[in-house]
Design goal:
Shape: globular
Strand order of the largest sheet: 3-4-5
Structural class: mainly alpha
Number of helices: 13
Helix content: 55-70%
Oligomer: single chain
Radius of gyration: 46 Å
Distance between the termini: 120 Å
Length: about 350
């Protein structure tokens, strides 16, 4: 009987070792199994082995079979409990990994999307913006032949300006100023295009093209002189506009190669002013002597009426600081076409 019991216990130990091997394989195949779970199972298996040795020693010392049976009943539930603990499915973890992988792929696709092309915020001037970007260089040189080929687009834009005129009173200052600068510039370009080829704007209308009625807005016909000297200058009191409106001559400040809008007007008024003052073909700036464009002479009232005030204006936008008592003279004006 004692031999049978020992044999039975040996079988239990073999089964326990087999379970340990199965548990180890399961642990390696699933990412869910933790180190703490493995330690708990190993401790229980070791406890089982110790129990077996205690039974053998107990029988050798004359222990009863009933006592052995009791030991066996205590060991068996441990094994069943261990088997139940080992069984687990890694499916939730795998699903989580899949979700994370899919999320990463979506993020990568989103990052690869092409950015939207920048657009003119004030769409009312988009037609003119497209034309100026197409036919005016960054240095301000105008392709009048190209404009002539796109004359239908110029006419379209002038009609758009005419339709917007009724809304002027409801617009803010920047939006209204941008509107009138664009009106002045497109009318000037249209004047040249209608008479192209021409060498100078002064060759048109007996040298007085600025007094010709060239556009009708709200039932009123306007000349370039009226737009500049009756509307833009007195109503907006902004000396920088002299570097925004363009007279189609080489000595004029360069015409902007985009539309003026309420969003860009303050930025570009400053940029255009600085660029014109720094242009050595138009102005020579020294600490004690200035040779300036005649614009500062003809429109001196807009810059402060005196040479000292003109110098203050120059110092605000020039990298070279001029002395208040510097000598001021003016350049001859080149009226040849700015093409």
């Amino acid at each position: 009987m004692k031999f049978i019991k020992l044999t039975l216990l040996a079988s239990i130990l073999i089964f326990s070792c087999g379970s340990e091997s199965t548990e180890t394989n399961t642990q390696e195949q699933t990412s869910e199994f933790t180190d703490s779970s493995s330690k708990e199972i190993t401790d229980k298996i070791d406890s089982t082995k110790v129990g077996f040795r205690n039974v053998e020693e107990y029988l050798g010392e004359g222990g009863t079979n009933d006592s052995v049976d009791k030991e066996l009943r205590e060991i068996e539930p441990v094994k069943l409990k261990e088997k139940k603990t080992v069984v687990a499915t890694p499916k939730p973890i795998i699903e989580k990994e899949k979700i994370e992988i899919i999320k990463d792929e979506v993020e990568v696709i989103t990052e690869m999307e092409a950015p939207e092309k920048p657009q003119v915020k004030a769409e009312i001037h988009k037609t003119w913006d497209d034309l100026t970007r197409k036919h005016i260089s960054s240095s301000g040189k105008v392709n009048y032949a190209g404009f002539k080929a796109d004359n239908d687009e110029i006419v379209k834009y002038i009609k758009e300006l005419q339709s917007y005129h009724k809304d002027l009173s409801s617009w803010g200052k920047n939006k209204r100023l941008a509107y009138w600068i664009n009106v002045y510039n497109v009318v000037t370009v249209k004047l040249i295009v209608d008479n192209y080829p021409v060498k100078s704007i002064q060759d048109l209308h007996g040298g007085k093209p600025w007094d010709q009625k060239l556009i009708n807005l709200g039932g009123t016909s306007y000349t370039l002189n009226v737009i500049e000297n009756k509307i833009i200058r007195p109503k907006f009191n902004e000396p920088r506009i002299h570097f925004a409106v363009n007279c189609a001559a080489n000595s004029c400040p360069k015409i902007l190669n985009r539309a003026w809008t309420e969003d860009n007007i303050q930025r570009y008024l400053t940029k255009q002013t600085k660029a014109f003052i720094a242009n050595t073909t138009q102005n020579t700036i020294g600490e004690s002597e200035l040779v300036l464009s005649n614009i500062f002479n003809w429109y001196k009232a807009d810059f402060g009426t005196s040479n000292e005030n003109v110098i203050k204006f120059i110092n605000k936008y020039s990298d070279i600081q001029v002395k208040p008592d510097a000598v001021v003279t003016y350049n001859d004006y080149d009226w040849s076409l700015n093409n």
